[in-house]
Design goal:
Elements: H1 6-19, E1 24-28, E2 31-35, E3 46-48, H2 56-69, E4 75-78, H3 84-92, E5 95-107, E6 117-120, H4 125-135, H5 139-150, E7 156-162, E8 168-177, E9 180-188, H6 197-211, E10 216-222, H7 226-234, E11 238-248
Parallel strand pairs: 3-4, 9-10
Antiparallel strand pairs: 1-2, 2-3, 4-11, 5-10, 5-11, 6-7, 7-8, 8-9
Helix pairs in contact: 4-5
Length: 249
């Protein structure tokens, strides 16, 4: 994986923040702190985005205090935008590393829609409920997901594939902003896997993204998900940069 310019990383990070909104956000000296009552790591984490002026120890302490105020464990997301000292400073404080992940990106090209993939322009309650059920999410988390998606500002599309019996079996969502299509919430129920649903969902979202002026698509995948990484590579996605999380042990 070649080193990606920080300007590109910052652009994609900014798009992803907008595409996956937290319930509350605070910007503090180059860091973005995101809060969503504990639903998903990305929406409940500290993210370095711009150069900072205040001492590192003071920023860490400030972030920790705010997460305690919200009854959340402090979680730091470490991308190439973070100052090199941050990762080591967190490790020295007892933060453990977990969920190493990749951001992958592909040109949209001539992706075609598929008749089996239904797209809706808003996060309908039926889509949120079906996705939550397929993901095994708690009712409280499904409610938070609905709140988060209701805060979306850029145009979005919500994809769903129904199985032979009519029950939803595959999902995905896309958010388009300034030439980039973010792909999130990719999920296929176990019984419907290896049938090409995920590839068709991505193609449908990319086709929709092109109608919104997007020329590239990006997504995140955990490093240990070899099957997803292989699928995305077959679809033309290339790893641009890695990130990981840290939380107290």
């Amino acid at each position: 994986m070649e080193e990606t310019p920080l300007e590109t990383v910052r652009m994609l990070e900014s798009r992803a923040f907008n595409a996956w909104p937290a319930l509350q956000t605070l910007v503090h000296d180059g860091w973005i702190l995101r809060f969503a009552r504990g639903h998903t790591k990305r929406s409940n984490s500290v993210n370095a985005v711009w150069p900072c002026a205040t001492p590192l120890d003071a920023r860490i302490a400030h972030a920790e205090a705010l997460f305690r105020r919200h009854d959340l464990p402090p979680v730091f997301r470490i991308t190439p935008l973070a100052e090199p000292e941050l990762d080591a400073a967190l490790e020295a404080r007892g933060y453990v590393r977990f969920d190493d992940s990749l951001v992958m990106r592909a040109p949209i090209g001539d992706a075609a829609a598929h008749a089996s993939v239904a797209l809706s322009p808003s996060p309908l309650p039926a889509w949120i409920g079906a996705f939550g059920k397929a993901a095994g999410a708690r009712p409280a988390d499904v409610a938070i997901l609905g709140e988060m998606l209701g805060k979306l500002v850029p145009p979005a599309a919500f994809a769903q594939v129904d199985g032979p019996g009519g029950a939803p079996c595959a999902f995905g969502m896309g958010v388009a902003e300034d030439g980039e299509l973010g792909i999130f919430e990719m999920l296929t129920v176990p019984a419907a896997r290896r049938a090409g649903h995920a590839a068709r969902v991505i193609a449908a979202l990319m086709h929709w993204g092109r109608t919104q002026g997007a020329h590239h698509a990006y997504l995140q995948v955990t490093g240990g998900n070899a099957a997803a990484r292989a699928l995305y590579a077959r679809l033309g996605f290339v790893a641009l940069y890695a990130y990981h999380y840290r939380r107290r042990s």
